[in-house]
Amino acid sequence: MVEQSAVNRFVVGSNPTWGVLIKNIEMEKNVDKLKIGNKSFNSRLMLGTGKYKTTNNTINSIKESECEIITVAIRRLPIDLKNDSTSFLKNLNWNNLWLLPNTAGAQTAEEAIRIAFLGHELACQLGQEDNFFVKLEVISDPKYLLPDPIGTLKAAEFLIKKGFTVLPYINADPMLALHLEDLGCATVMPLGSPIGSGQGINNLTNIKIIIENAKVPVIVDAGIGKPSEATLAMEIGADGVLLNTAVAQAKNPARMARAMNLAVKAGRLGYLAGHMEKKFYARASSPLDNISKI
Fold first, then answer.
1. Is residue 135 annotated as part of the catalytic site, yes or no?
2. What's the CATH code of the domain at 211?
3. pLDDT digits over 17-31, tens only?
């Protein structure tokens, strides 16, 4: 994990109030866990592993993000990790990470199902025999890369019956989200905007409706380009954020991963704190009631 900064060490050491505050935040983090299926996680940031320029960028970004779930496109990996010395997966500490295989590249439900089973085999090779997680992507549209709702429903139903913990990537469609939840999906993962676009959250109203209705975690997936957008997703009540391109294509990926880590934490704390209501008029920060006249 990232070494505590000199500033933080100074503040905690010299100001007991700050020390208590940070201790309380750490205690709250231990209580406020993200629960997906039968697993609990401290971090609410999930990180993708594609598009990085170097293996070191990938590994350093994962460390700086402090994420516990990383998603990997199964079709881009060797089937047998034992005989592949180049895969970055072998350089990660799988005692602290949980693999989320994804079915990226699947154009049909049938393809996605096959890839999901390969994903479980990969998890077993990493020592996670009980890992049946799968990020379900069925994308038949090669231009806009929008998820196929019918194919997603079909694949989700089959995989859930086979014991998989399904995290479906979907359009920000509140009714589709409810149908997938009814099938038994462990989360719903609406896109903020087209994947890899960095446009931010263009579907804010629909995502708010999904969050309001969902009884499973809602993870905003795709389109987030800046830390402020990750914070916004958390402030409106999303349970987590999954991103890739925003970190991988940054000028300094590891630093951006750190920024996203802090942004997600800030957004979650802000949501739990409860923000003030907006007003259409000014109101003095220091009330003038009962003030003596000078």
1. yes
2. 3.20.20.70
3. 656 555 565 555 567
